[in-house]
Amino acid sequence: MKWTEVTVSTSNEAVEAVSNILMESGASGVKIDDALDYQNLKPDRYGEIIDLATIPHITEGAKISAYYPETVFVPEIIPTIKQRVAKLAEFGLNPQPAEVSMADLSDENWATAWKKYYHPVRVTRYLTIVPSWESYQPTQPGELVLKLDPGMAFGTGTHPTTKLSLQGLETVINGGEHLIDVGTGSGILSIAAKAMGVGEVEAYDLDEVAVKSAQANLDLNPVAADIKVAANDLLKGIQTQADIIVANILAEIIIPLVPQAKANLKRGGYFITSGIIDDKFQTVLATIKTAGFQIAQHTQMGDWHSIVAYLPTEED
């Protein structure tokens, strides 16, 4: 089968939104090349896993490549993609340079397009993300290995917003908790939570493509076998009383989620949010505080913020 590759050059902050636009326009998968991911491969306190000089990489911004089968007449949808990408500025996201290009691609090339870029990456002190096609052995006691196929619809799991979410989970998980993952995407947060000892996990995403992608990644990790993943609009209609709710989504979506999270959290439960760009942080923070949450932790990586809040008990 022949495929068409559509590539959008954009900013780091618009990666998730552009990916969604491409998937909603009929792409069968996307590959995300984010300069921030390559920066994360440089030596840090966890040690370097691969030599950055040995792989091709971009040095700024991001490129999202989407793959369309020959049954889709791509020239017809390009104008809509360009329009929707440009319109992201109205939602507070910078889509520039917002350049859109297309190229023919063979089935074989599409199947392997992303593999040369992705290698095992240590994302926190204890968590290492390993592509599904690579073998990897832990290098230190307590290291947890998470298998992830970045070729389904999402990136490698090393974006700052994901790393901040994972770090937040590490600070609150004691073991045996009931957790809800809102906007699960690749499913990486749900998989990591189970690996860290959470008892029950419910994972939701609005997009059916994301649900399928998450399920494929769950299937790669035996520890995640009992995770429930389904399509849902945030927490509408969900009646669960959870110990932890985590949401790595855009700030504009976090705000309407706040009252839903409060209704679905036990007293003393934790609400972890990430995906908050710098100029939206104060608005999200104020919304969370106004809802009655107390702030346990605020972390930042570049222009991205994460908040760990908790619902006070009567004794607090």
UniProtKB/TrEMBL annotation:
S-adenosyl-L-methionine binds at residues 162, 183, 205, 248. Transmembrane segments: none annotated. One of its GO terms (biological process) is methylation. CDD domains: AdoMet_MTases. GO terms for molecular function: methyltransferase activity. It is found in: Cytoplasm. Its main location: cytoplasm. Its EC number is 2.1.1.-. It is an enzyme of class 2 (transferase). It catalyses: L-lysyl-[protein] + 3 S-adenosyl-L-methionine = N(6),N(6),N(6)-trimethyl-L-lysyl-[protein] + 3 S-adenosyl-L-homocysteine + 3 H(+). InterPro entries: Ribosomal_L11_MeTrfase_PrmA, Ribosomal_PrmA_MeTrfase, SAM-dependent_MTases_sf. SUPFAM superfamilies: S-adenosyl-L-methionine-dependent methyltransferases. Keywords: Cytoplasm, Methyltransferase, Ribonucleoprotein, Ribosomal protein, S-adenosyl-L-methionine, Transferase. One of its GO terms (cellular component) is ribosome. Belongs to the methyltransferase superfamily. PrmA family. Methylates ribosomal protein L11. This is Ribosomal protein L11 methyltransferase. The gene is prmA.
